[in-house]
Amino acid sequence: MNLKMNFNSSKIFENNDFVCDYLLSLSHISTLNGKLDLTAYVVMFVFATAANVILIHSMIKTKETRTNTAKLFLVMAITDLTICIILPFVHEFNIHFDTGKYTCTTYGVEQFFICFLGCSSTIFTFFITLDRFLFIRKSQWHQQMNDTYPIVMIMLVFTYIVSTGTGIAIFMLIYRHLHEQISKPSVVFFSALLVLYVFVLIAELTINISLIVYIRKQAKQLRNITNCQTSNNRHKKATKTVLMISFIQIITTLPPVHAFINVIIVFAREEHDKHMSRIYYMTTWLNIPIILSSLMNAIVFVHRNDKLKTFYKQKISKHKAALISWTGGLSEPDSVPTDNSTALNEL
């Protein structure tokens, strides 16, 4: 069925059932976009969930939660894991199972989770890059912050308040334009929070670009650091970690920033009835990098932390040895190694 948007611009979404059916048709499994959409969300769900489970498991087992960065990464991984489990099911329910009047509501719920995940991930990584930056440039400040436990709690409270507020803001914005049942002061308040979310994304983007510029300027100095200088090597590793996290944030923040700016412009001009498909495709596809950010942050932290890498190397070696033993690849258990180096390795 060929669906077209023919709404009266003086009355926002007069026929709500028609809008819901139209939204449903854009990404239904019968369409190419629906098949690609389903594949993308399933792949992201599997990899993001696996990466965050690996990170949480290794940090708990190794008790690697001493620094503020580690604490923030652990909380961010738990938050990302929770949202990554919920979001794909809400998204697929919205597209493939929900019909009629509830479609628009579940679409708003889906956007709430996307907004919450993006905002919390952005603020968490901002605090993480700030912590690493202080470790590189202001070691005394960094030590004082690590010794002050309430600092992390303040960061967490701030992150969840802003993330929840902006998530509710976008849900209310969608619900308002679909049902017109929310008072104007509420719309103004939640719209302001939505603008704050966009501001947070742009600020994060600006700060990370500034960090990359600073690190590039220090590149020559970093190349001259020798392996025997332990303290400098730690700073060098921290600098590279900040660079990697900053780069990830830039490539995963640009698409949702572009999407939200376009959505705000379209709604401000009251042209949403003409560009509903454009809004839907942007908020569906350009928000996927937010989930990608969750995946890549987990991979970076496991890869850059020697304690976590050693933990998993030992587990892999143990399972590999057990597999070889099970397949009969090992020598007889009564045999005694004669090579001293082999005996030492087994201690």
TrEMBL record:
Its main location: membrane. It is a multi-pass membrane protein. Keywords: Cell membrane, G-protein coupled receptor, Glycoprotein, Membrane, Receptor, Transducer, Transmembrane, Transmembrane helix. It comes from Clytia hemisphaerica. PROSITE patterns: G_PROTEIN_RECEP_F1_2. It is found in: Cell membrane. Signal peptide: none annotated. InterPro entries: GPCR_Rhodpsn, GPCR_Rhodpsn_7TM. It comes from the Eukaryota. This is G-protein coupled receptors family 1 profile domain-containing protein. The chain crosses the membrane at residues 38-60, 72-91, 111-130, 151-175, 187-215, 242-267, 279-302. CDD domains: 7tm_classA_rhodopsin-like (cd00637). GO terms for molecular function: G protein-coupled receptor activity. Residues 51-301 form the G-protein coupled receptors family 1 profile domain. One of its GO terms (cellular component) is plasma membrane.
